[in-house]
Amino acid sequence: MHFFDFNLFKFTFFDLLDVLLVAFLIYQLYNLIRGTIAANIFIGLALLFGMYYVVKALHMQLLTGILGKFVDVGIIALIVVFQQEVRRFLLLVGKNASLQRNRAWWQYFFGKADAEKNNYARIKPIIDACKSLKSTRTGALIVFAKYYDEQFYQNSCEVIEGKISKRLLESIFQKTSPLHDGAVVIAENKIKSASCILPLTEKTDLPAQFGLRHRAGIGVTEANDATAIIISEETGELSYAKQGRVKMNISFAELEKLLNKDF
Ligand SMILES: Nc1ncnc2c1ncn2[C@@H]1O[C@H](COP(=O)(O)OP(=O)(O)OP(=O)(O)O)[C@@H](O)[C@H]1O
Q1: With pLDDT > 70 as the criterion, what percentage of the chain qualifies?
Q2: Whole-angstrom Cα distance, residue 221 to residue 247?
Q3: In terms of pTM, does the model score above 0.80?
Q4: Whose C-alpha lies nearest to ligand 1, atom 13?
Q5: Cys bridge to 157: 47, 191, 196, 260, which one at CB 3.0-4.6 A?
Q6: How many angstroms separate the alpha carbon of residue 197 from the centre of ligand 1?
């Protein structure tokens, strides 16, 4: 009689790799949906799947039949329900293999000082504009898109295609400007568009003072490979959003560091 199957405990290097990769994917998934409404949906679906296997093991025919209908369309339902999260996940995976990254490594080894000098020249007008907007308590939302998705941005934006300058940014966000409502999108080293209406985050754990501007600033970084500076009209505070998370009340020195890294 066969009591114990030692083959069950054969653990190869690839099994270990398999477990580590699954753990990594679950961790990334957790990071993506943490604090969002999707986390509740995910728990709901996990319970449904769990229940299906329990009732199946207990041979409860009727419930197994009903729950089985949901489980059968499992992967398609997951993709439909988590459309935004799947998009963000794929962006995250793709970003690490992107040409932009490889160029950054190249610069790291062969031309760091030069790259930093150029970068400072690029970000200075943005920092100067933020200083001025903060001092006048002018609300602003500036998005830095790694990839300018025409379909995503252009539907709701005014096309600008202008050189990045302090005065242009100030003029756009001035309260009497027809373009001041909405976000400015910077990509390909240009102010691509202004007055953009962006998707709002569905996060439920944000500070009470965060209104639509902050929600839009966080939302765009969830749906796209982008970061965003948010200047509050109410308090003049600067926040920085990246991958759906937000750093509040940052200083200009911090902003410079963040832009140096992300822009
Ligand atoms: N979907 C959106 N996309 C881009 N900008 C938006 C969007 N919704 C609102 N805004 C901008 O946010 C402004 C309203 O900001 P609101 O007062 O609700 O935000 P807030 O996060 O509390 O910021 P503040 O501290 O500046 O008041 C609008 O005038 C508009 O410019």
Answers
A1: 85
A2: 13
A3: no
A4: 213
A5: 196
A6: 10
